[in-house]
## 1
Amino acid sequence: MSRTVTTQRKMITTAAAWTIGLVIFFPIYWTILTSFKTEAQAINDPPLFFAFDWTLENYALVQERSDYMKFLWNSVIIAGGSTILGILVAIPAAWSMAFVPSRRTKDILLWMLSTKMLPAVGVLYPISLIFVEFNLLDTRGGLVVVLMLINLPIIVWMLYTYFKEIPGEILEAARMDGATLKEEILYVLTPMAIPGIASTILLNFILAWNEAFWTLNLTAANAAPLTAFIASYSSPEGLFFAKLSAASTMAITPILILGWFSQKQLVRGLTFGAVK
Amino acid sequence: MSLKSTLCAATALSLITATGAFAADPSATITVATVNNGDMIRMQGYTDKFTEDTGIAVEWVTLEENVLRQRVTTDITTKGGAFDIMTIGMYETPIWGANGWLVPLDDLSEDYDVGDILPAMAGGLSHEGTLYAAPFYGESSMIMYRTDLMEAAGLEMPEAPTWEFIAEAAAAMTDRDADINGICLRGKAGWGEGGAFITAMSNSFGARWFDMDWNAQFDTEPWANTLNFYKNMMDASGPTGYATNGFNENLSLFNQGKCGMWIDATVAASFVTGDDSTVADSVGFALAPDTGLGKRSNWLWAWALAIPAGTQQQAEAKQFIEWATSKGYIELVAENEGWANVPPGARKSLYENPDYQAVPFAQMTLDSILSADPANSTVEPSPYVGIQFAAIPEFAGIATEVSQEFSAAYAGQQSIEEALEKAQAITNDAMEAAGYR
């Protein structure tokens, strides 16, 4: 009897998981599908699922109109640069918070997280003025710094959580064996936290890749990444859904591939310490 | 590779990234910020010709309309200098011109023939008689209707119909079983979407946003008449969910043969008669309706090219504007893509050209533009310039909130009276805070 209940429960859980998965995936599926339609087919009512003449004309048109590789390269530099810089700052910060906490460590962590609650537009003008003053407008370097800063609270929090799972005694043992602070972080802590660091890197990279407020507001022709590439296909007057879908598909493909190949690492890292 | 080497490499990579990225771009190109409209995209395709002729390279930054507004506003107010030319509209131009944020276009060459710009357009893009932006294309609004459905309903569209006729025709053309809605109109929240339409419509009902002392006028009868008429007609003959329909949603419905009439921007004429339309062969045009009070419900708008003050490449930017908004550019497009595809609504000479006169919607577009008067848009006197907007900096924010209240009323979430009461309070509060009252 109990076995039947377990099987039923498993079936329900599986069905629920598939349903949720399909609901989450549907917008991506629909975007990809629409990218192969003509503009007229894209707005057809009732919507067309498979029975239409598939076309690649939107991809050809987008390629012809925009320099995709330039946007892609900017995305890679900005997302990659901000992630690397963020990790370099966050590892020592998280180490100190996890292993040498002070009375105020929890407060600092909460304060860091609270900066994420401020609407970005609230600091648009101060940041823009700083960018103008330091000649950073429309530079990849400026965006690397800004995206690093806005994602830093999340990186520190994630690393702090992973580091807390590592027994402090191991680090103490290393210290007793004569390891310096640098050696302790580099050769003892970091190798043990590799799954956590890897998932933090991946998550931060995805967040930076998808960031669409600062990357639109602080760039023009030189440093614009794929978010600007997508935004250029939205139109207030005229049909644009098929072309926009093609541009979106091209923009999300690299990150989808990265996510697909690293999903094992990502899941392992994100569930690290979740079950005790 | 050891962990230490990996971290060193990562540090080096990030430093190289940052250092390389901070380097200034040595190129001498001009950067143009623009919207993704058909005519703008077409212009981008001809830029090589300009570069060939002048040696000036052009970089394009194409953004969605609202993002573009935010982006160029930030850039101009912080003196960012990211753009040498900005695509802006009739709303921003006089305000920014008055603030000294734009370079006056008062020394355009003789060949350019500034006198050829339609007076309504030149007026809307000027401040105290000085032109601050050159119109790339202009538009008004008009009725686009299905001639076959009108005929089947036993009616004939007058050239200048009244709202009463439009409501009657919409009811007669509506066939719910065949999925045909008699009329499709904007209801979507947003000052440039449903807000623009209802403001232009209200002018014909004798309403205005402000009296001469900048007091909101939503508590007056003409506003109640406007909203009640709109809602009754749309509930009876409009599409489901009209409260969330904007330009593109209605274009899509019309092109699929699901609207008997559509009152919207004149530039839509080329879309509803184009390849993507299933009803291209049976579309007629008429002036936007009135109620006999002397004002029609059509608006006036132009997408124009302006130079932000402080650009280092003013001369090159001016040269580009002269090229892109010239008679020569219109001829270049006509030669390659036909007269129906030239940017409309900016120059008198275009409408004097016999080739262009043959385009089915050309005359109605011109008539609609000529019947719009931004300086005198309301029946009762008003202190502002603009037809579907009031050219004051506060308007965009206020009108967005007001249009949200109206859309909620269209959707049945509140009554018309409640929406108007809230609109009155929102507007008066904002105007008081801004120091007008």
## 2
Amino acid sequence: MKTNKGAKEIFLDAGIYSGEAVKLAAFVFSDKADIRIVPGKNVFKISVRAENAERAAGEFLNEVLNQQCRIDLAKKNSKIAGIIVTKALLSAAGEK
Amino acid sequence: MKKQENKTIAVRASLKDQNLDVVRYAAYAVSDAAYVFIKPAGKRAVALEFTPKSAAAAKDLLRRFKEELADEQKRAAIFASNRDLREFMILKALAYEEIPPSGQREDSGLTPEQERELDALIAQVESEIKKESFGKKVKDPLGITRTWEEKYGAKTGRKK
Amino acid sequence: MAQKQAAKNNKSQLLLPQALWQKIGANYLLTNDSGHYAWLKEKDFALVTAGKMAEKDPLFAELAAKGFIRNRLDFNDLAAKWKKKNAYLYYGPGLHILVMTLRCGNKCLYCQSAAAGLGAKHTDMPLAVARKSVDLAFNSPNPGITIEFQGGEPLLNWEVLKNTVLYARKKARIAGKDLKLALVSNFSLMTVEKAEFLLKQEVSICTSLDGPKALHDKNRVSSSGSSYDDTIKWIKFFQARHDKQVPEYRVFKPSALLTVSRYSLSGHKEIIDEYVGMGLEDIFIRPLAPIGYAWRLWDKIGYDAKDFSIFYLKSLDYILKLNQRGVVIREKMASMMLDKIVNFRDPGYLDARCPCGAAIGQLAYNYNGDIYTCDEGRMVGWEGNDLFRIGNVFTDSYKKVMNSATTKVCVVSSNLEAQPVCARCAYKPYCGVCPVYNYETQGSLWGNMPANDRCGLFKGIFKALFMLLKNPEKAAILKKWVAK
């Protein structure tokens, strides 16, 4: 990880963090920091620009992990999650 | 484990006997206390770097991570062994009705596709459970291991 | 893969069909989807998770009866309990909040509704909007409809409120639905005439009471003197009418809501004593939500989850001590959580269920007919972000509202099965997340639970309740709270 003036660069391994998780985290962070993602060979080069770039980069890392764990969970749990959501929405709409 | 100058705590986790998502979740579970960075460390391991958010948070971090890792390994094993059973139980619960008073069942509240899936799951899981219990002489005076069909007779067709 | 291999190796040994757990002190709290729970010593937990607990072990029968032993599952019992606890999944929204006006004479420090000044009559709900809102509410498939009149101060729009009460009663008769009406008022404009109408129409009355006079008036600043004096005068009036009862109609006991600001944190005993002194039997100790107007003033009136937890636990402890002395007083949030834990019952707590009650459990109708997922969503709208707006009573049908993208995303994001921490949490069978809170505090509807204050707070409350339930004397008191 490198820190420049107001910006921090992070290199995330694509085998550990998926592109989807990185993009979702960048979306969540869109009003907290300026996030630039450059996909490379098996790596995402990410630039985090904010007033406190060090802290913002740390929080961004945690958000990527949050999104990644959500994706991991969906692979295991999507069937049950889907059943509950479907039941709740259908009942609310008055359709059984 | 080694402590670096910037107070980052580094730890290595093997992927030989656990999946990457198990390690990822254990690290995520302690992300209230630290910023977490994971990178590859050879073919079948990852290196984790925890930068504590405060001095107080640093204190327990490694112990918490190890506990979370052990817990997540247990959860993964239990989940893998029971995935179908749990899906069946949720579907069964969603479709559950008290014994109907008039003999006619009300709509289960499921879509036709879910109904078909439920029927298939019921058959599959019950057959698995029977296979597992077969031959074992288990004391069960209350009959709690029996399926509801054994207790109450087969279901009638579902009204759509 | 390693996981599959591990499962294969363990399959023949595993006893647990599905379980969630939390280590608390030296013991483990084990829970499951149906809502059963059991306490295990560390050695027993190790035996159970390793699949090595013997059938002759005294704990085995208890665990089997509660659905923790894989080949001893009573599917009917577990299904019945799951369904009872999640009964809300079978109905549509039951709570319909009508914002009669944004005007209010009070200027409360934390007011989420960011009340408008008394002159802002354009924020009064017109009768046509009120009637359309009621029409839409009655399109919900829920057999029980609650219409709650809120504000601002709803009594400022009295004629419309009165008319809407009568209109809703008529609709209920035609639709054959059970209708409950509720008013949330600061009583500053209450008169005997209005009170008589509300009583005759069986409108339940709820107000805000933040504690003794000094604290209440500090939190709830009134432009016309003491807001406390109005509150107390009318609580006493409605209490007296409740105690007297009449054969013609039911008179409900008045209730009050407590909002905890930073100024409240040092006075838990005084606040609870105030409730007891007023003859109120329930106190709802609610944390301040950093949403809307309150978020802007957070530096002055806010606090972190830890401070609130300390306050809450001290309050709970004091309430139990009062109970031991024979005083009747219950804490509402604990009661609702206990109802799930002890009775496997859905208490109708929209903030702690899976998925949350946004849109599918409640709808908030703004004065102009805009429909929001909930009142908190409306507050966000008032701050200029209409993310939680899901329609308008004049342009959108009930079905369109329920099928809106926002409704769906709130349901999906508050589904605990899709939340990594919640899906593994021992308190999952009794808990829920709030997409509006997540969005306001963490920037996404899903939030990030390890760093989420609300999650920390709920975990603290659940932990305290389960610990109290371990103590037979305290468990007996708590069970009485939800014995009905």
